[in-house]
Amino acid sequence: MTNFNPINNNFNIQQNLTSQKANFVQDNQNTQINQFGQNQTQTQFQQQQTIINPNLMINYETVKMTNEQVLKYLLNLLDMPSSIDKFISNLNNPQNQDKSAKLLIENLLNIKALNEFLNQNSTNGINKLLNIIATTLKQGNEDITQLKDMLNILTSIQQSSTINTNTLKELLLLYIPLNIPIFNKENEFEKLNEEEFKKAKSSTLSIMLETINFSNTLCTINTNDSKLFLDIYSTEVFPFEKFNNIIKLLSQNGNINLSTDFKIIKSKAKQTTSQNFKVISMGNIPLNVLLLAHMTIKTIFKLDSDFSFAT
User: Fold this and answer.
1) 286 has which bridge partners?
2) Mind listing the pLDDT tens digit for each residue in 142-197?
3) Cα(86)–Cα(114) distance, rounded to whole angstroms?
4) Quick one: which of 62, 79, 139, 160 has the most CB atoms within 10 Å?
5) Per-residue pLDDT tens for 211-234?
C-alpha cells in the first residue's frame, strides 16, 4: 500500500466561491467542479471556515490512491468511522455523544435519520474538499483527477440522501472498495419473476447484485427472533459452497446466528464488466442485518472478481 506524504502544518482557509471557480476551471477539464459551484451560494462559502486535517493533504502528482485508500480518505472527509464494524459499534455505545448515535432507534437503524446524517456529512465533506483542491492547486499540483472523482462521489451521496433513494447503498459503498464510478452508475437488473419479486418485497432487506460472472443475483435477509435467514438466488455457476463457508465464518466472528439457503434461477447470460448492487428495505433495519448485508455484498463481489481472474 502506498504511504501518504502529508504536509505537517494545518491549513485554515476561508474560501470565496467566485474566485475558486476561476482557479478550478482549467482548459474545460474541471466541469463537475464548475457545475457544483453554480449550485452553491457565495455566502455559504464566505461564512464557513474549514480547518483541513494535514493528513488529507497529499502530493497527488506522485501518489495515486487505490480504491480502498480513496474510501478511507472519503470517510475522513465525512467524519465517519474507518470500518462498518466501528460504525455499528458507535451506534451501540450508550456513552457515545457523536451525532451518529441519533441514527439508532429501539435497536434499529433509522433510515430517515441516516438520510439526514449522510446529507449533512457530505455537505461538510464537499466544503472541505473544495478547500483542499484550492490549496493543492496553489501548491502547483495540477493533477487533481482523484480529488475531482471524490468530489463527484460526495455530490452523489448528497443528492441521493436529499431525494431519499437507496441510502443504504450509499452507506455500504463507503465500506466496500469497488470501482469509483459505481457511485454514479444506475442499476440495470433484469425483471424478477413472481416468486423472486415476492421474496424481495417481503424480506427485511433484499440485495440485487449485478455481477460479471453470475449474472444478476438476488439475496434476501429475514429475521426470526435472534436468527437471520439468508437466501441466495443465482445461476448454477454461483459458487454457493465456497460462499457459504466464508459467510458462516464471518457471521460467527460477528456473533450472527445465521441460516443460509441457495436456489438456482434461470437467467439469461448478461455480459458486463462491472459490479453493482441495489438495496431494498421495508423500513428501519436491525444492525445485525446491516452487518450481514455488508458481509454478503463484499463476499460475493470478491468471489466474482476471483472467478474472473481464474478464468
Assistant:
1) 108
2) 788 889 888 988 988 887 765 555 788 889 989 987 766 566 666 556 666 777 77
3) 16
4) 160
5) 889 888 999 999 998 899 999 999
Helix (H, G, I), strand (E, B) or coil at 26: coil
Q: What is the pTM of this model?
A: 0.76
The pLDDT of 108-120, averaged and rounded, is 90
The single-letter DSSP state of residue 37 is H
Contact 250, 295 (CB under 8 A): yes
Return the closest-CA partner of residue 261 out of 284, 241, 278, 277. 241
Place of cell 451501540: 92
Q: 238 near 232, Cβ under 8 Å?
A: yes
What dihedral do alpha carbons 117, 121, 122, 127 form, nearest 10°? 150
Name, in order, each residue with C-beta under 8 angstroms of 30's C-beta and a sequence gap of 6 or more.
Answer: 24, 148
φ/ψ of residue 187, rounded to 5: -80, 140
Q: Tell how far CA 33 is from the center of its chain.
A: 21
CA 106 to chain centroid, in Å, comes to 25
